[in-house]
Write a structure and sequence with these properties.
By secondary structure, this protein is α+β, with helices and mostly antiparallel strands. 27% of the residues lie in helices and 20% in strands. Helix 1 (9-22) crosses helix 3 and helix 5 crosses helix 8 (277-284). The chain starts with a strand and ends in a 20-residue tail after the last strand.
């Protein structure tokens, strides 16, 4: 978070300490008993990891952020959240680094709002105990959830994986930003009598990276149980869950119908998203089911509320996180009317610049096909670019960082930070259940 104007570091440190005191999850550590059972231990009064640093410019700030990411965490001792205030004259950058086990995208806006409110001397809302969420979870029908996921994942012959091992230690993820114009408009009325598919589902039906028939991807589901309803109470901890998305490709099915079918399949599973991924994997009878992900974020971040008074909040720097998944997509609304912005994170050791370039060329066309040509059969949508059909294999080129343009009927811009795997075409015939 970037701040401008006079700033009192001591007051900001005190605000960070108060936020940590208010939320037990921010004081959590994770250890094992003498029998090897993992347990969560909430510390009564851990130290606040708050560091001040002077930087000479953007280069030193980038180096400071990179060094902070490399520090990692000792989950047995904590704290699992730290703050670094980097100052350059009257411009300040507050760097917040946290372990994902104690916070997610829903809780971080709460943490940041409370931080600034305490700094400004404003009253803080009452904290709702995490036990309310645990009580809600205990009321859910786990047997019904196991049965629903077992039916949804029946007949799988294994997971869909791009990587063959863990990411190299300290490897920074690559990033590719796409802005795709003409990807969110509704199809002409004559194209289909069925209700239009929400734009959030369209990228999902195009997420077919790398594996046989592009069989499965997954998405993150952010739980919002009744205990998190609007009101004064707030939770400052992680509520994230990750669930699989299974896509059975049928060559003769119109791509618009595929998108609607995926939407309906997921709607039937929504009430069972509380089941943890470990339990879902156990029900499916396999180990890892996927290593690609798609995340739709709708976090309650009110930028105006964060900028309630001095110091004044300036546009922030993008967050960074280590990625164990070889490929991760995050769609969001584009400032371009009738457009979609995609941020792709990837592991450079799995996906070369060349392969990322193929996805950058192909994905906009796939998205437009779903929107503008929903009656096209899945089997007729190419999973390869023209260049990839004729170009001989070659080693990955050096990473390019200059912006490039994505070719296509509508101008789609690409901000390059590295280049994902070629998309496979749909099978030529209707797959059998074992190929789903």
């Amino acid at each position: 978070m970037e701040l401008t104007g006079p700033l009192d570091p001591a007051r900001l440190r005190a605000a960070a300490a108060e936020v940590q005191r208010r939320h037990p999850a921010l004081r959590a550590t994770f250890r094992r008993t003498s029998q090897g059972t993992p347990v969560q231990v909430v510390l009564r009064a851990p130290r606040v990891d708050f560091t001040e640093a002077e930087v000479a410019g953007a280069g030193e700030l980038d180096a400071l952020c990179a060094a902070d990411r490399r520090r990692g965490f000792d989950i047995a001792t904590g704290p699992l959240m730290r703050w670094t205030l980097a100052s350059h004259g009257d411009r300040h950058t507050l760097i917040t680094t946290a372990h994902h086990s104690i916070r997610d995208g829903w809780s971080m806006p709460i943490v940041m709002r409370e931080l600034m409110a305490h700094y400004l001397g404003e009253p803080l809302p009452q904290v709702r105990p995490h036990r309310e969420h645990l009580t809600w979870l205990a009321r859910q029908d786990r047997a019904a959830a196991h049965a629903a996921w077992g039916q949804a994942l029946a007949g799988l012959d294994g997971g869909t994986l791009l990587a063959t091992g863990p990411a190299p230690h300290e490897q920074e993820p690559g990033r590719l930003d796409l802005t795709v114009e003409g990807s969110t408009s509704r199809p002409p009325p004559a194209a289909s009598a069925s209700p239009p598919t929400p734009s959030s589902r369209r990228p999902g039906c195009c997420w077919w990276p790398g594996s046989p028939a592009g069989r499965r991807g997954h998405r993150h589901h952010r739980q919002r149980p009744s205990c998190r309803s609007a009101g004064r109470g707030r939770h400052g901890r992680s509520f994230v869950n990750t669930v699989p998305l299974r896509a059975a490709l049928r060559a003769d099915e119109p791509v618009g119908d595929l998108a609607r079918r995926l939407q309906l399949d997921q709607a039937r599973l929504v009430e069972h998203h509380h089941l943890g991924l470990v339990d879902i994997r156990r029900t499916a009878g396999h180990g890892e089911l996927f290593d690609t992900s798609m995340v739709f974020e709708n976090y309650p971040l009110d930028v105006a509320a964060l900028a309630g008074g001095p110091p004044r909040r300036a546009p922030g720097r993008p967050g960074r996180a280590p990625r164990r998944h070889p490929l991760r997509a995050r769609p969001e609304a584009s400032p371009v009317a009738d457009g979609l912005r995609l941020r792709l994170h990837h592991r450079p050791d799995v996906l070369s610049d060349e392969r990322m370039g193929q996805i950058a060329d192909l994905l906009p066309n796939l998205l437009r096909a779903v929107v503008t040509e929903p009656t096209t059969p899945v089997g007729r949508i190419s999973g390869h670019t023209a260049a990839s059909r004729v170009a001989p294999p070659r080693s990955a080129p050096a990473r390019r960082t200059s912006p490039t343009r994505v070719p296509g009927p509508n101008s789609s811009s690409t901000r390059h930070a590295a280049r994902p795997t070629p998309w496979r075409s749909a099978p030529a015939s209707r797959p059998s259940p074992s190929e789903n």
